[in-house]
């Protein structure tokens, strides 16, 4: 350090050098030279100790102050900090930093003023060895953006309190990026968190508050006691959303996609989206407007176009169930799809907004998963605006020690260093300010940001609920609390911005509009630009059909097969992977039977050649969990990657294949959102093992299997779920086929168990080649990926189609067949080989490759030649209380009844079990032998 004092001044690069050294010192004191370590040990500390979590800006300011005040004509000695004023100067800088770090803990952010917080020692003058006696002393402000370099201590303290301890509590010092922190300080500090608004802006805020309150009052009077999950107590959400949409449009956004749960949803739909109030009233009155099962009004989505200073903006509200935060990753997927459609890799044109409840934000694990995806390659969307409607109670749980273990409900956002703005919902001007800063931060840094709108719930969990039974003190306070509009109107009256007549006129005008059934969103575009919409018209109104031409020209097939085996010159492929690619070249030449990996790759290649984009994600999709895919090659020299499927042609559609982070729930929800937004793409999520889908059951139940019936939401998502009983124990055998089949109805999904490479080739192609958009659940194989008998030919790919049932009438003397075994999946090969070992000529095996919608006609055709049947069994590897038996037997019986009414269908499988499979390989083998023998021999 002494060398630095003797040879350079603490300006510019030297100051940065000291700061970098100090950061290293915080992480590991032994990693800096001894002379620096000794000096840092003697420097002022925030609190009792220095750790990597303690901000080091006071140290930086200390060096900067010394460098400024010692002149540039002589070296600066550490010992020069000797005068009393200089010592106090350092303490003032330390105090400034304390307000930046902990000021939010003393902020007036609770409109009810119910929760008394402990005093913050760091914000007390005496903590920093200062006192009121120093109020008139002038000190340097260091890095404070207060518009002056120095000020009296009293003024500094007052400005710090106004900036950090009033109705805005800014939490951002956990961010490690200095540029981001300085940017936020430059936005917050010059205006002391409370910029002066022009009269038109203030009147507009009041008008939006009038709309928010007016709708709730009207609904409360007209539909007393009906559930609406009103925004009463959090009316500032409406001016917030208005500000957000208008500012996003001004910044160039073309779409704003919003996900939110119940509270305030109807108000947002009417007052921001422009949903016609008359339509909402019809829903309250129970008018039937759809032919499907439908959903309650506060789960429904909506879309519209509004005008902003930057042009027309499309708004979309995502449909969502009552599973609270699960809609958040769905929104992210929809946003990413829209960005991909616009070829926007930065995220400027489509803005995601997630509106949360405080209890759910803190309590639901999918919130963490959604934050975790925010900066990953596969899932980033350029930053999300998170708005927490903080009612300070979750249903009936309000005590902090019951609701969470963190100080704030928003603390989970710190994991991605998102800035968090806690703001008092009864100060709508402060709400407007933090909204501006939040959106601008998102646009500047393409990262997530959180607005914690601290408010209250004027009614109970819903309008029929009585909250005082569990929250007596809170609701006594709420009962006496003036509404946000009343408080703000009084504020404007006192400031002379409006008079009482103007305030009253606003209320009357809004009510008249409601009664007339007029649109009440001021910016609504009544004749929207349809180019902003996703066009689903080609995919609407199609009935289910098994027929689909998925054939491919043989010449094109071989050209593409050779193309996907090419690698750049000098690209060194790992030895085993090189062998896979050499085998694929032989397959392309017709010199080798085709395996699963080749056929799947060719399905993708041919679809890309036909103009269909493809997105494939999952925990190991690049290589494939079982090393069969190797779609992403890794250079053994420098670890660079090459994806042959991305290099088929210069003008090919987008091919996205990315490994996901270790999540199922949020990732599957994201892919669902993506698939519901780009109808012409093949969108696939592959589970590492099929049972991993258990972790995403909410998505499967609430969106994938029921979204079309509840909301009319079409989705062509494909799920590849490795499934097969191969002795890997209870956790890695079953994709829970029975759960999917139990949810099958109304042609909602497709469930398939393909057993040959050609079948997966045509199945994947069928998913996008036909205009029907239904989720596809594939019970993918594991051992079949390399099974010597699970092969196909080039002709099977070029000329074939997906077969929902595969019979073997042509391979046998049908008249000799007395026993018929129906099956699906891997067990077919066990049955086939055991039959050959035992020389059974009177047993036929028929594969049902699609279990839903069940192909009754195809099964009838496959068994039509078996006129002498005496017994029929369904054989499965799963325990008999699992698998396809219970949900599919009636379909099989329907076919058998028409074939021969005297036939009885029996079932063979593993014994009923609580777990999917046994854990001991010897027991597994015994069970497998037993079920195969029983199926063949009875």
From TrEMBL:
Q: Which cofactor does it need?
A: thiamine diphosphate
Which NCBIfam families does the entry link to?
2oxo_dh_E1, PRK09404.1, PRK12270.1
Cytoplasm recorded as keyword: no
UniProt-listed Enzyme Commission number(s):
1.2.4.2
In what residue span(s) does the Transketolase-like pyrimidine-binding domain sit?
A: 594-787
Q: Which SUPFAM superfamilies does this one have?
A: Thiamin diphosphate-binding fold (THDP-binding) (SSF52518)
Name the Gene3D superfamilies on file: 3.40.50.12470, 3.40.50.970, Multifunctional 2-oxoglutarate metabolism enzyme, C-terminal domain (3.40.50.11610), TPP helical domain (1.10.287.1150)
Keyword flag Oxidoreductase: yes
Output the superkingdom of the source species. Answer: Bacteria
Q: What's a BP term from Gene Ontology annotated to this protein?
A: tricarboxylic acid cycle
- Relate the assembly described in the record: Homodimer. Part of the 2-oxoglutarate dehydrogenase (OGDH) complex composed of E1 (2-oxoglutarate dehydrogenase), E2 (dihydrolipoamide succinyltransferase) and E3 (dihydrolipoamide dehydrogenase); the complex contains multiple copies of the three enzymatic components (E1, E2 and E3).
Function of the protein:
E1 component of the 2-oxoglutarate dehydrogenase (OGDH) complex which catalyzes the decarboxylation of 2-oxoglutarate, the first step in the conversion of 2-oxoglutarate to succinyl-CoA and CO(2).
Name the family the entry cites.
Answer: Belongs to the alpha-ketoglutarate dehydrogenase family.
Species assigned in the record: Marinobacterium aestuarii
Q: Can you say what this protein is called?
A: 2-oxoglutarate dehydrogenase E1 component
An example GO CC term for this entry is: cytosol
GO terms (molecular function) for this protein are:
oxoglutarate dehydrogenase (succinyl-transferring) activity; thiamine pyrophosphate binding
Q: Write down the chemical reaction(s) this protein catalyses.
A: N(6)-[(R)-lipoyl]-L-lysyl-[protein] + 2-oxoglutarate + H(+) = N(6)-[(R)-S(8)-succinyldihydrolipoyl]-L-lysyl-[protein] + CO2
List the keywords (alphabetical).
Glycolysis, Oxidoreductase, Thiamine pyrophosphate
